[in-house]
Amino acid sequence: MLRSLFNRIRRKIGLSYRKDNRGRRLVAVIECIINQNARDAGAATFPAMDWDVVRLCNQYHVGILQLPCPEIHFLGFDRNRKPGESIRNALDTEAGRESCRKISMEIADRFQTYINQGYQILAILGGNPESPGCAVHIKEGALLANSGVFMKELQDELHKRSIDIPFQGIRDSDPDMLAEDIEWFRKILSQNNKK
Questions:
Q1: Any domain includes 59
Q2: At residue 99, does pLDDT exceed 60?
Q3: Is residue 11 assigned to a domain?
């Protein structure tokens, strides 16, 4: 009876003895890394997801924040565009960049909320070298002009807010490049491993 009374009082005043097991570490990944069904027709490398990325996140107790596909957001699932127009050319227009900018602002808001709550965002994982929205080409920590439209908009928005998170492509279209990227990712996770 005394325990029951104590538990009611504890709940009423907001005390909790539950252990919070959150690792407070995240990685942001483009949608198609954990859902290959989001890729344009003929572009999927895996039937479902890139298991190497998911396994590493699980192994190092790192949460996954899924970034929406900018192509689907702007063009729809079927990537509707003018006949003969490439996805890159459709996305790299003022309207396409504005769509990517809108997503970037929403993502940056979420990042800021996590950071303000004491979380670490360890990396942003982009896509293959030819991805119109999510390609990551880096030199000295900055995205190059041939990077994806969304990745460039996201980096610009993060810079405006003084949020510094490394970008890395997960180039699963080539097994050797994918192995390099997975090794980079493993190093990032192990350097930031609290356990």
A1: yes
A2: yes
A3: no
Cα–Cα–Cα angle for 16, 10, 114, rounded to 5 degrees: 30
Q: How much is the pTM?
A: 0.85
First CA to last CA distance, the chain: 40
Domains: count for the chain: 1
Is it the case that residue 168 has pLDDT exceeding 70? yes
1, part of any domain: no
Cα–Cα distance for residue pair 179/108, rounded to 1 Å: 29
Listed in sequence order, the residues at least 6 apart from 167 whose beta carbon sits closer than 8 Å to its beta carbon are 123, 124, 126, 136, 138, 143, 151, 155
Sign of CA dihedral 154, 158, 164, 165: negative
Q: Which domain holds residue 175?
A: 22-191
CATH number at residue 31: 3.40.50
> Mean per-residue pLDDT for 95-114?
97
Q: What is the pLDDT of residue 3?
A: 65
- Confidence check: pLDDT of 195 > 60: no
Per the prediction, the chain carries an average pLDDT of 89
Query: 163 to each of 74, 122, 184, how far by Cα in Å?
Result: 25, 11, 21
Report yes or no on 6 lying in a domain: no
